[in-house]
Each structure stands twice: as structure tokens, then as C-alpha cells.
């Protein structure tokens, strides 16, 4: 069993809990996840199994989509519904048009200060550990991209919205910052991830589904092959001879017709539909226009 399973994570479990349960259900040790979800959040959690774990660093999860519900009028220390209310503000004077305009102003490249209750490390220590001790430290703002925000329903103080954003964006921080801009505070009540790069909710299964598929012998039906998961990389189909070279850890010959890519670009080396390796295009140091392939990761 090799590849990715998209789990529809339920609320109340950590991403590590999901990995532990998948490991136990499948009876495998080589299991990992990409794109951590907060315990209160639900939705798309890609879980890598077997050789799929090797493909994690090469995934394109640069765009993520979430469905969220925020509550204006109160800000919490965790910026979500699991935290302690730190301050409350009057929102009754706010018009829906005003709220819509403020939310729209967050579309584009913005700066976010990572929340204290996050896995971001400072001095080698995760911020959430410091937060649990009552410590708050200075955090450097980070650039993130908000591609779009669509308000699905507004019944103040509740606002449901769908946001498309870059990797590394904290949606609860987005809600917190919107509340600060409105002057009344806000926090996230619900968060559901709909998409993470190539993985979406339409292809997700629950843990109960996974157990059922395992027991019925249909477990392979839920796997996304590493080759499909890395579909954003140019595919180079290898000959039988070059495939044997790759299996031995030897870079295959490079034909210019195969690699109309720039120096440093990564490609998939494939034979008969199976991913053999991820390689990097290397330009000739002599400047003669020749190219070579350097193996980065070989798959069994």
C-alpha cells in the first residue's frame, strides 16, 4: 500500500491522532500527514502511506480552500472557539455592507503575525508550549496570500465564508484581524478544509470508511498514487534501460526533447505509469546548452 489517502478529519482529534489511527487500521508503520489541521477543525487531511511519505516534500499544496464561520464581538486567546474570551466589543452598529467591505480589504498579499497557539517554533520551542505557560513573545509578521474571500451567509454576529489562500495562512488569525479592523473583535467558530493542493473533500473518506474498505478488501480504491499526487511536475517517460538505471540509483541520460525546462526545475521520472523518481534539471556548466538529470528521490 503506497500513496495518499484523503481523510475527512472529524473535530476533536489532532492530525497526529489521525495518523496513529490510520497506522493502526492498516497495520503499517510508514504513515505521515501533510498540512496540520487544528483539533477543532475538520475536513481534508492528506495522509501518506508507504512510499507516499517520500513524495510529501514535492507536493504542491500552495493553495488551500477553507469554509469557515466567524463570530464578531469577541476575541479569544487562541483566536478560535476553544480559547478564553479576552475582550468583547459592540457590533450592533455595524452594517452588513461595512462588514463586507472590511473583509474584502483582506484579499491580496497581507502580513500575518502567527498566533501564540501555533506550532511555529521560536528558539526551537513551539509557540503553543510557551502560550500554555502564560508567556507571550514577539513574533515576526509573515507574508501570506489571500486569493479570494466569498461570504456565503451573514447573520450578524455570525459570518460564514469561503477563503482560498496560500500555504501557511492561519484562517483563525484572518478572522481575528478582521475583528480588530471592525473594532469589535472576532474569533473562528468553525473551520472546514475543502481543498489542499491536489487533494479535495470530494475524494475524502472518514476513518469508518477506511475500516470498512480494509475489511472488505477494497482498500486500494481509496489510494491516490504518488505519480498522480505529483501531477504538477513534468512527466518524463523512461525507456526500460533508463528505468533500470534509476532503480540502481543512476541518473538516466537526458534528452533535450524530454526536458524543455529551466535549470533547477523538478520532473517526474516514470515508467509504465509508475513513479520511479523525482529528478532535477541541471544545465551544462560549460554553457553549451546541454542538460542533465540529477536524482533527488528514488521510489521503490
Architecture overview:
- This protein is α+β, with helices and mostly antiparallel strands.
- The protein has 3 domains: 3-61 and 198-227, 2-Layer Sandwich (Pseudouridine synthase), CATH 3.30.2350; 63-196, Pseudouridine synthase (2-Layer Sandwich); 233-298, Archaeosine Trna-guanine Transglycosylase, Chain: A, domain 4 (Roll), CATH 2.30.130.
- It is built from 8 helices and 17 strands.
- The strands form 4 sheets. Strands 1, 2, 3, 4, 7, 10, 11, 12 and 13 form a 9-stranded mixed β-sheet that branches. A 4-stranded mixed β-sheet has the order 14-15-16-17, covered by helices on one side. A two-stranded antiparallel ribbon has the order 5-6.
- A hairpin with an 8-residue loop joins β5 (74-76) and β6 (85-88).
- α1 (15-26) runs parallel beside α6 (207-216).
- The longest helix has 12 residues, at 15-26.
- The model has no long low-confidence stretch (mean pLDDT 90).
In short:
With 300 residues, the protein is of the alpha+beta class. It has 3 domains: 3-61 and 198-227, Pseudouridine synthase, CATH 3.30.2350; 63-196, Pseudouridine synthase; 233-298, PUA domain (Archaeosine Trna-guanine Transglycosylase, Chain: A, domain 4). The protein has helices at 15-26, 52-55, 96-104, 127-132, 171-182, 207-216, 226-229, 240-247, and strands at 3-9, 31-33, 42-49, 63-72, 74-76, 85-88, 108-112, 121-122, 125-126, 142-155, 158-166, 186-196, 199-200, 234-237, 266-271, 274-283, 291-298.
Amino acid at each position: 500500500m503506497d500513496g495518499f489517502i484523503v481523510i475527512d478529519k472529524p473535530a476533536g482529534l489532532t492530525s497526529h491522532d489521525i495518523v496513529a489511527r490510520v497506522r493502526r487500521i492498516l497495520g503499517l508503520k510508514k504513515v505521515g500527514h501533510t498540512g496540520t489541521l487544528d483539533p477543532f477543525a475538520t475536513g481534508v487531511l492528506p495522509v501518506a502511506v508507504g512510499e507516499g511519505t517520500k513524495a510529501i516534500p514535492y507536493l504542491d499544496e500552495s493553495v488551500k480552500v477553507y469554509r469557515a464561520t466567524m463570530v464578531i464581538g469577541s476575541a479569544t486567546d487562541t483566536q478560535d472557539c476553544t480559547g478564553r474570551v479576552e475582550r468583547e466589543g459592540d457590533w450592533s452598529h455595524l452594517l452588513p455592507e461595512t462588514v463586507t467591505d472590511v473583509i474584502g480589504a483582506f484579499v491580496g498579499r497581507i502580513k500575518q503575525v502567527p498566533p501564540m497557539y501555533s506550532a511555529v517554533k521560536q528558539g526551537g520551542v513551539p509557540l503553543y508550549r510557551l502560550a500554555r505557560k502564560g508567556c507571550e513573545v514577539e513574533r515576526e509578521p509573515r507574508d501570506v496570500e489571500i486569493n479570494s474571500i466569498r461570504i456565503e451567509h451573514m447573520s450578524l454576529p455570525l459570518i460564514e465564508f469561503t477563503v482560498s489562500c496560500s500555504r501557511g495562512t492561519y484562517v483563525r488569525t484572518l478572522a481575528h484581524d478582521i475583528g480588530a479592523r471592525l473594532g469589535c473583535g472576532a474569533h473562528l467558530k468553525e473551520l472546514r478544509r475543502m481543498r489542499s493542493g491536489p487533494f479535495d473533500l470530494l475524494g475524502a473518506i472518514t476513518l469508518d470508511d477506511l475500516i470498512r474498505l480494509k475489511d472488505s478488501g477494497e482498500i486500494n480504491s481509496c489510494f491516490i498514487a504518488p505519480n498522480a499526487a505529483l501531477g504538477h511536475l513534468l512527466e518524463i517517460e523512461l525507456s526500460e534501460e533508463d528505468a533500470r538505471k534509476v532503480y540502481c540509483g543512476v541518473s538516466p541520460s537526458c534528452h533535450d526533447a524530454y526536458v524543455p525546462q529551466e535549470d533547477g526545475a523538478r520532473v517526474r521520472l516514470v515508467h509504465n505509469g509508475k513513479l520511479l523518481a523525482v529528478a532535477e534539471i541541471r544545465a551544462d556548466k560549460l554553457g553549451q546548452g546541454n542538460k542533465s538529470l540529477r536524482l533527488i528521490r528514488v521510489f521503490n
